[in-house]
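@channel anyone free to eyeball this complex?
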Amino acid sequence: MRNAYDVIILGAGSVGAPAAFALAQAGLKTLVIDTAPSVGQGSNKAAIGGIRATHSDPAKIRLGLRSLEVFSTWQETYGDDIEWFRGGYAFVAYREREEKILKDLLAIQKPYGLNIDWLGSNQMREVIPDLNPDGLIGGTFSPDDGSASPMLSAHAFYTQAKRLGAEFRFSETPTEILTERGRVRGVRTDKGQYAAPVVVNAAGGRAAQVAALADVNVPVRPDCHEAAITEPVARFLRPMVVDIRPTAGSSNYYFYQHITGQIIFCITPSPSIWGDDRRETSRFLPMVAQRMIDLMPRLRGIRVRRTWRELYPMTPDGSPIVGWSQEVEGFLLAVGMCGQGYMLGPGVGELVARMVQQTLTPSDREVLGYLAPDRTYAGQEKLK
Amino acid sequence: MTIPFEFPRDKVKAGDRVVVLDTIGTVLDEVEVVAVKALKAYDRTLLVKVKAPSGVARRIAGIRVQSPHVTMPLHAPVPRREDDAVVCRCGRVTAAEIRALVRAGYRDINEIKVVSRAAMGACGGKNCGPLIQRIFREEGVPDFTDNTRRPLFLEVPLGVFAGVGEEGEGDA
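replying in thread with the prediction:
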């Protein structure tokens, strides 16, 4: 039958593109539909590119470790340069409060075998020589984490998925998820109709609207974050630097030097700015620039090139939602990545493929237990 | 006659003989420089005062700084190698690279940016944007998506946003 697939993925972004690749690799006939005219045009290209496995939630640690492995070996395996750089992640502490938070996290992270340790202030300054020494207590450092280009990564997953036979339909908007007696039958769009027994919601910031096409509620709502990139300068900074001190107007912010030499940075507004207004604001740059220069005075002369605003698809407890819908059979949710869709995408994509093929491992089942759509959402992740 | 002069200071001094030109570059005369003034209000523009016959003086628009051969026609035409043309100077991307992507089926300039690095530089696609659009039209592809334009429209140091100025140029 024409227009019949094994799986239809809604969303060709940080999760949809690697999921398409994993499904195509498994030999499944896969169709990806996205409203945008090309791959990764939603929140994917807004991600700043940090990739870490050093989370505090067991599910994210496992997905993160696998994702890290995929990103760091991508070029040698598939040939595409995705600008991977193993610079590590450094969470810095200038006060006892942050020192305690980070040391408490270490106690959770170490048993998972994560390569992360506490560094005193002198050791931390060996890793980041330009860090402001005034009041620096130290921090955690995880040298195996890194960064890559979200845009090039999505593009690489897309081209490799196509090579394996996956089909992509861009500039096409789903209007209905077709069901019959509580089972998924396919997808209708503004341009056509496609049949499949499995439909994956990988719609990022639009996950709730897409789920509503199947009359399914998912507790995902986006909040807005802004980011920017500078001109390229010679390498002086290796790790992603994260400062989690809450300050008026913002909580944590983070920055790193991409392999192209550019500094890329982002800040978490406090209180959160809910909604999906993607227009850049003039408040963001002064706020983040002050905090960054305070932490690293050397940054003051580096020129900002571009700024943008995008969405973090948030869930009530700060953890992603990955699992089969309880309401509609065959409707798979891979949503609510809470701003980490890029760094978790390859791990989530492979997990989605194993769910569809029914080849879950015991570890997968444990991960899915944490990310289940019907969980209570009562917990709160320690470090989002 | 006083002429604004926007080339380095050492290029002209009082007593020099200079060739003066009219508004379309025609040689008018060779005349003597009588004074060179630098006013703070004019930043780096010098004021060059020359002594010229009255018939010539009113037509003077500038001083020749290049040697004449620079503007002379060549003996033979230079073959046009359009595909070597650099479309994006920031990323050094040629017309041939963009054309190959259009022919390979790319229809979103945002995607062309990712794979070619065109429009990712300091100018934000101000220069290459229209040139890439032209290539689409030359290739007979009228329907394509333009790239998303975002601020900043010129690069500004982080220190300026933070209100502490930038290094090297004193604190603002």
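from a first look: DSSP finds five helices and eight strands in chain B.
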